[in-house]
Design brief:
By secondary structure, this protein is α/β, with parallel strands linked by helices. Among the domains are: about 170 residues, Rossmann fold; about 80 residues, Luciferase, domain 3, CATH 2.30.38; about 100 residues, 2-Layer Sandwich (GMP Synthetase, Chain A, domain 3), CATH 3.30.300.30; about 70 residues, ACP-like (Non-ribosomal Peptide Synthetase Peptidyl Carrier Protein, Chain A). It is about 35% helix and about 20% strand. It contains 20 helices and 27 strands. A hairpin with an 8-residue loop joins strand 13 and strand 14. Helix 4 packs across helix 5. The longest helix is centred in the last third of the chain and has 32 residues. The C terminus is likely disordered.
C-alpha cells in the first residue's frame, strides 16, 4: 500500500518536485524511475531471496535526496531498510550490520570506502550497490521499456517490516526498533488529518533519517504530493541562515526538535515575516513554556504543534495551539485515533488527578518490538484483555483537571539530548571498559559548565562523573568514546571524583554530584590570543560556549561544544566578519589558532585553502551525471509510451 500510494502521486504529479536538497531537485517521475531502477538491481542481486526471515538493506547515505531514493528502492524491492549515518563510528555501524543480518549496503561515491570496510568486518557476504554507478551493477539495469517495480512479483503484507531504527541501549550496544508498513500508514494518516497536509505543502526535514522524527516528514510529503526539503546543517558548504532558507524556499511546515528550534529563534531579530509558514511542529524532547512564548512572538501567522511519541510509537498524541490561545502548562495533547494514553502507578492502576505515574500507550499500531532482543521487548510491552497491546514508555506524567496530561520527566535515567534518546547506561558501560576508570555515572543537565543560562533555553548537556586515580584529559576520553559512540552521545563535560557519593542505603547520591569533583580540562594549557583575528575568535567562542577563559589551542568540542553550537558560532562569525564562512571550516579547524590561520589565508588560492574540494567536486559531478542519465531514461520511457498509444 505504501508504494501504491506513492505511485498514485507519480501518476498525478510526475513533473512536480518531490524532493529538493540543496542544488538537487527530483520530480516525482524522476524519483520513481530512479528508485525503481534500484529496486530491480536489488532483486537481480538475489539479496531479497530468503526462506526464513525478511532481509535488511543498510542505507549508508547522507541527509539528502539519495537517501529518499534508497528508501523507496528498498521498499519497492520488498526488503527492510536501515538508515546508517555515515558519521557514526565504524564499530557501531558494524554492530548494526551484524545485528540486522543485513545482506546489502546501498551507498554512493562519497561513502563507498566506509561501505567496503563494513562489508569486510562481517563474516557473511554483503553486496554493495553504489547509487552513483547504478548502470554498472547489472547489464539489464538500464530499462527503457517502462518496466516498473509494480511489475515485480512481490507480496507486501501490511504487517511486513518496513524499517529498523537503532537507538541507544542500556547494555552498551544500540537496540533496533522494528516498524511495519501498516504502522507507517497509520501514523501518516493521523499526521495528515491533524495537520491538513496537502500537495501545496513544503515540508522541512531537519531530523536525521536514523531518527524517527524523519518518518512523518518523509511519508506525509511523498504520499500526499507535497515537496520534502532535507536540510543538513553539517554538510552545507556555505550554510545560510534558516530564516533566509525558509523564506526563499517558501517552507510551509517546520518540524524539528525543540533544541534546533531554540537555536533558530535565537537568530531572529523580529523583523522577519514568514507568510508561507503555516505550522511550527516540535517533538522528540520536552517543549518548554519559553518555546511557546517565542512562537507567539515570531510566528503570528502559524499554528503550533507539540508531538508526543517514541521510536516505538512514532506519534502518540498531538497538542495544537494558535497564537491567540492561552495556555497554563505545556501538554502532550490529545491521543491520535485508535490510541489510548494511560497514567498508572507501580501496580498498574490508573492514578488520580494530580498524581504522577508512568505513561502507558495502548494501541494496535505499536512497534513489534526490538530486533533480536526478546527479553527487552517483554520488559516494555504487555497485553491487556480489554485494551490490547501496551507499551510502557518509562515517561512520567500527571492528570490535570479537564483530562489533560503534563509531562513530568522519566522514571529511569533515560534522557533526551538534542532530540536523541540516550541511555546513560550505554555510555557508562563503555567508560567502565577504560582501564583507568573505576566508576562512572552519566547524567543530562541543563546549561553549560560556564553559566546558569539554562533556565530559559532548556538545552541539555551530558556530564560524565568518573572515579579514577589518573590525570585523564578530555581530549583522550573523547577520542576513546568517539570510536564507539556517535557524537551526540559523547559527554560535553567530564568530572573527576575521588569516590562516588552515596545515600544511606548505599546508592549513588546523584543530587550531590554537582558539589563534588574537579572538571577535567582539555590538557592543552592556556595560551592567550596573539593577534587581532585570534582575539575576535576568542571572544566569539566565549559568547557561544558561555565560558570565561579559552586558550587558542583548546578544541571546540573538548570545551563542551556540539553541532548546534557550531551553527551559532557560524552565524556569529558571519556577522562579525561580514562574509560567508563554510560551516565545514569550523569542523575542519577546531582550535582558535588553526581557524584564525584559515581566515587569514582566505586570499590564497582555493586549492591551498581546501585540498578536499577536488574530491567533493568529483562526487558532485558523478551525482550530476547519474541524474542526467536517469532523465534520459525517463525521456525514452515517455517517447515509448507515446508511440504505444
Amino acid at each position: 500500500m505504501l508504494i501504491k500510494m506513492f505511485q498514485e502521486q507519480v501518476k498525478k504529479r510526475a513533473d512536480k518536485i518531490a524532493v529538493k536538497a540543496g542544488e538537487y531537485a527530483l520530480t516525482y517521475g524522476f524519483l520513481h524511475r530512479y528508485s525503481s531502477q534500484l529496486a530491480h538491481i536489488i532483486r537481480e542481486t538475489g539479496s531479497t531471496t530468503t526462506t526464513h526471515k525478511e532481509k535488511a538493506a543498510a542505507l549508508l547515505l547522507g541527509h539528502d535526496e539519495s537517501m529518499i531514493a534508497g528508501i523507496l528502492g528498498v521498499l519497492k524491492s520488498g526488503m527492510v531498510y536501515i538508515p546508517f549515518d555515515p558519521t557514526y563510528p565504524e564499530k557501531r555501524l558494524t554492530y548494526m550490520l551484524k545485528d540486522a543480518n543485513a545482506s546489502l549496503i546501498i551507498t554512493n561515491n562519497e561513502n563507498i570506502d566506509l561501505a567496503q570496510k563494513l562489508s569486510n568486518n562481517v563474516p557473511e557476504p554483503v553486496t554493495i550497490i553504489n547509487l552513483d554507478k547504478l548502470e554498472e551493477h547489472t547489464p539489464g539495469a538500464d530499462r527503457e521499456d517502462g518496466e516498473d517495480a509494480e511489475d515485480m512479483d512481490i507480496k507486501r503484507e501490511p504487517r511486513q517490516m518496513a524499517y529498523i531504527l537503532y537507538t541507544s541501549g542500556s547494555t552498551g550496544n544500540p537496540k533496533g526498533v522494528v516498524q511495519t508498513r501498516e504502522n507507517i500508514l497509520y501514523f501518516i494518516d493521523n499526521w495528515v488529518r491533524r495537520f491538513s497536509v496537502s500537495d501545496s505543502d513544503r515540508m522541512a526535514q531537519f531530523a536525521s533519517f536514523s531518527h524517527d522524527g524523519a518518518v512523518p516528514d518523509i511519508y506525509s510529503s511523498l504520499l500526499n504530493g507535497a515537496t520534502l526539503y532535507p536540510f543538513d546543517v553539517k554538510r552545507k558548504a556555505n550554510i545560510e541562515a534558516p530564516s533566509e532558507w525558509l523564506t526563499r524556499e517558501k517552507i510551509t511546515i517546520w518540524h524539528s526538535v525543540p533544541t534546533w528550534y531554540r537555536y533558530f529563534v535565537n537568530t531572529l531579530t523580529g523583523n522577519e515575516v514568514f507568510f508561507d509558514l503555516r505550522l511550527v511542529i516540535l517533538g522528540g524532547e520536552p517543549v518548554r513554556e519559553h518555546d511557546i512564548i517565542m512562537y507567539k512572538k515570531y510566528f503570528p501567522y502559524s499554528r503550533f504543534g507539540n508531538i508526543y511519541g517514541q521510536t516505538e510509537s512514532t506519534v502518540s498524541s498531538i497538542w495544537l495551539l494558535t497564537p491567540a490561545d492561552n495556555f497554563q502548562k505545556v501538554l502532550i495533547g490529545e491521543p491520535v485515533d485508535q490510541t489510548q494514553i494511560l497514567v498508572v502507578d507501580r501496580d498498574g492502576d490508573e492514578v488520580e488527578e494530580h498524581e504522577v505515574g508512568e505513561i502507558v500507550l495502548a494501541s494496535s499500531f505499536l512497534s513489534p518490538g526490538y530486533l533480536n532482543n526478546v527479553e527487552v521487548t517483554h520488559q516494555v510491552y504487555s497485553r491487556d484483555e480489554e485494551l490490547g497491546r501496551l507499551y510502557w514508555s518509562g515517561d512520567q506524567g500527571r492528570w490535570l483537571p479537564g483530562g489533560d496530561i503534563e509531562m513530568m520527566g522519566r522514571k529511569d535515567h533515560q534522557v533526551k539530548v538534542r532530540g536523541f534518546r540516550i541511555e546513560p547506561g550505554e555510555i557508562e558501560t563503555l567508560l567502565l571498559q577504560h582501564p583507568d576508570i573505576r566508576e562512572a555515572i552519566v547524567m543530562a543537565k541543563e546549561g553549560t559548565a560556564g553559566s546558569a543560562y539554562s533556565s530559559i533555553s532548556g538545552d541539555r548537556y551530558l556530564w560524565a562523573y568518573i572515579v579514577t586515580g589518573k590525570d585523564l584529559q578530555v581530549s583522550r576520553l573523547r577520542e576513546y568514546l568517539a570510536g564507539k559512540l556517535p557524537d551526540y552521545m559523547i559527554p560535553a563535560y567530564f568530572v573527576k571524583l575521588e569516590a562516588m557519593p552515596l545515600t544511606p542505603n548505599g546508592k549513588v547520591d546523584r543530587k550531590s554530584l554537582d558539589a563534588r569533583g574537579t572538571k577535567l580540562g582539555t590538557g592543552t594549557g592556556y595560551i592567550p590570543p596573539g593577534n587581532q583575528t585570534e582575539k575576535i575568535l576568542t571572544e566569539t567562542w566565549k559568547m557561544v560556549l558561555k565560558l570565561e577563559k579559552i586558550g587558542i589551542d583548546d578544541n571546540f568540542f573538548d570545551l563542551g561544544g556540539n553541532s548546534m553550537d557550531v551553527i551559532s558560532l557560524n552565524d556569529e562569525l558571519k556577522k562579525t566578519f561580514q562574509k560567508n564562512i563554510p560551516v565545514t571550516a569550523i569542523f575542519n579547524y577546531l582550535t582558535i589558532r588553526t581557524f584564525a590561520r584559515y581566515l587569514d589565508q582566505q586570499a590564497a588560492p582555493a586549492a591551498v585553502i581546501d585540498k578536499k574540494m577536488d574530491r567533493r567536486e568529483e562526487i558532485r559531478r558523478s551525482r550530476t551525471r547519474m541524474m542526467e542519465k536517469m532523465k534520459r531514461i525517463g525521456a525514452g520511457n515517455e517517447r515509448n509510451t507515446a508511440r504505444n498509444r
